[in-house]
């Protein structure tokens, strides 16, 4: 299957310059559109609020304070009846009626009517914990109670297992809800690296995935990290190997994993970094050290933040009052009220003219200035002037934005009729050109070519036809490297402006136009390599892809700096979606 998908993916993408759009057909009334690339369908549905579609093809909407669900054809799957509906996770979403919680699946089917006080997230194998008010039990994907409520506490699923507690004793269940160990342990940590540290009587030891207990002769141990065991003697922690041989004599007040190369240590309320051999990488002098998904970590000292790489090298000395997570190779930073961004090499760009800068998405970052919104590129240049009253981030090459279509006096007006008449939502592309005119009371972001809009209290569905969906395929390699081959040699010349600043190159083009998201729409921090003349390589995230998760590769060609061949041709259609699932 792995080789088949690579071949199939290549066959599709080698034809991208030749594909044409297929007209959208449905049984609803299709309104006139000012662009042949999309259609607007009146759903004949009253609504107060609309929300973006999720990757499973469902979107919630709100009417009279209650939420319902519809699909990408505009069909009502669940009529408005819930006081809340969460985002889907592992194929399930929580719904509530008053204070009671239930669950729907990815098809919008109610599998558990709202009846529980609390519900945990579903595991990848489709089981979840539920709280009746006095105790916790376990249900399966069909809503059947497979373990009757009897636990005092149920912790989150971690690494395929869930820790439970009853009468101050601990046990474990696997991700299918089977009992690995009854509640017989006096203390326990979560599973890590196929082992969990537990206390049995006066002895600490490890249990494996079959429940076999092996005792260790230390005052306390934790579950393994990086193939080592945190061990405690007296009040201090050190490290041993998996057989109990000491690697690092206990000298720290706490030890925990930082990433797949490093271990975080603590003394006197301060933190530092060592490797798995106990060698010091960073002195114990930081107030906190927090990992990012991409292997980078934020360091915090004297109320300012810096950044270290996956091996503990400081790439940005502490200097920021605040720093966001990295996305598309950049993290938004703030220092003394001035916003900017830093890249993974430590280069900092401050933009003092903006009141706020948001995370980069599809090569552009939303900015705010004098209560108006616009967008900058990854060089910090304004691509779309801050002229909009409100704006969402770009998704699939378009952003929903709100614009004042009347006079400037409306801005400070309390006249709701004027505000409703002139403040309208529409959509722009990544060059700032109008994609869909400003005519709506509200609008959602696009996802999988669909968006919802409201006008005069009525809901309509927009479908973007300039898209191609590749059938979902399955891989078993969590560190899969994708190779995307195009039909012609790609344009890879570096372009500079009059000040000799780079405004476009192949690295920028790849980062801005190719992304991988998980089933919740969250960006995965992948990296790209241009393999001349016609191939792009996508390296996996730092921690790999999660098993039993579905991801989507999106390739765009509707911005200023597109993927082009040497003759200047761009991709046809302009949005390609390539989903894949990861299994054992």
UniProtKB/TrEMBL annotation:
According to the record, the signal peptide region is: 1-32
Q: Which domain of life is it from?
A: Bacteria
Q: Note whether Signal occurs among the keywords.
A: yes
Which InterPro entries does this UniProt record tie to the protein? Answer: WG_beta_rep (IPR032774)
**Keyword list, A-Z:** Signal
Transmembrane stretches, start-end: none
Q: Which PROSITE patterns match?
A: PROKAR_LIPOPROTEIN
Cited PANTHER family = DUF3298 DOMAIN-CONTAINING PROTEIN, GLR2918 PROTEIN
What is the protein name given in its UniProt record?
A: SbsA Ig-like domain-containing protein
The organism encoding this protein is Clostridium kluyveri (strain ATCC 8527 / DSM 555 / NBRC 12016 / NCIMB 10680 / K1)
